[in-house]
């Protein structure tokens, strides 16, 4: 096996050789060994915007997860190739909504509510779900524009179906002043509502999906910190459960979290509720502040972590050889409909 130094040298060599023909994108949750080679890093929104703007690169290597690479492929030109260094880098949340389940749910919603429902989907969803949403007049959202997009959605229709993250949906809707009593949950496994009350009062239907990383930040973690470290500021990602977000001091996307800590005074104390690689990077970059993970057992995203230095090198070698083994290619009909949903967001983001 190759040493880290040799692999790093080879990555730099191929990057130098391909120049502007190659563009490496890295999501904030990626490992340091990968992120150090990224030409641009960002949250989901920024990476989507960059994919839509970059017209120079022939190959875009997406260090992130499958749905992000799909989005990059949809937003890039036809002759640009998007590669995912490890095809197994999926997202358990995106996998919680498939087309079959979504169509069954949609049929019920049409029966119950008639033509009063607009679908919105978190970008953490498959291209097929984005296409379904686009065909039905809806849009994608990211964690940094969910509030703005939900506000827009309510100018279009009376009710919203929010896929696939119930937590982001609930946290955002509550932020907009919608009471919990007007939120129903749709259970796609048992194909039924989880709701008590008059269904006609419902304003938002939350798909019963979640992020397995962010569900690990609990009110118990917060209670413990408030008791032991009362001066800690608690900042979490809105994929965390409602109770956690309510009990914390700040909530926002990965970019928001980074920005907030960057602008905090030296000596301030922070507990962060998000993925481990990002938390550790922030701790390392801000040694003048006292920063910990909100959950003392660091929470990794297993699929983000599949992208490592060997996989990055392997994908660059593929490009060098002119092979497209790890290419992500969304079928044209799906891409066209998904573009409608993505553009409705990008126009407003
Ligand atoms: P953001 O980059 O929008 O904060 O999303 C976090 C996430 O879970 C990506 O999978
Ligand atoms: Fe999916 Fe959660 Fe991992 Fe993001 S952190 S890729 S939402 S499992």
TrEMBL record:
The keyword Chloroplast does not apply. Iminosuccinate binds at residues 27, 44, 122-124, 143, 237-239, 254. GO terms for cellular component: cytosol. It is found in: Cytoplasm. Keywords: 4Fe-4S, Cytoplasm, Iron, Iron-sulfur, Metal-binding, Pyridine nucleotide biosynthesis, Transferase. It catalyses: iminosuccinate + dihydroxyacetone phosphate = quinolinate + phosphate + 2 H2O + H(+). One of its GO terms (molecular function) is quinolinate synthetase A activity. Its EC number is 2.5.1.72. [4Fe-4S] cluster binds at residues 91, 211, 301. Catalyzes the condensation of iminoaspartate with dihydroxyacetone phosphate to form quinolinate. Belongs to the quinolinate synthase family. Type 3 subfamily. This is Quinolinate synthase. It comes from Fredinandcohnia quinoae. The lineage of its organism: Bacteria, Bacillati, Bacillota, Bacilli, Bacillales.
